[in-house]
Design brief:
alpha+beta, two-stranded antiparallel ribbon, single chain
């Protein structure tokens, strides 16, 4: 169950459900992950909507975000 101010979403990369707090961005888990410009650009070009924190961290830790397409169908 989610707070009425937050939204349950499904990550378009891994299909896991997570709680998006974009309406209170300072409380959102995504603010814990620092993303490079290259990673942000890749995410914007590849996915619609928010990704879960685990996927954000995995993409940022990847040496080459372009390999992401090879990891997930």
């Amino acid at each position: 169950m989610t707070d009425q101010k937050h939204e349950a979403k499904t990550c378009p990369r891994c299909a896991r459900e997570f709680v998006c707090k974009a309406n209170r961005i300072h409380q959102c888990g995504c603010m814990e992950v620092r993303l490079s410009r290259e990673t942000v650009d890749h995410i914007r070009q590849t996915y619609d909507g928010c990704l879960c924190v685990a996927c954000l961290a995995l993409l940022e830790s990847s040496t080459d975000v372009r390999l992401d397409a090879l990891r997930w169908p």
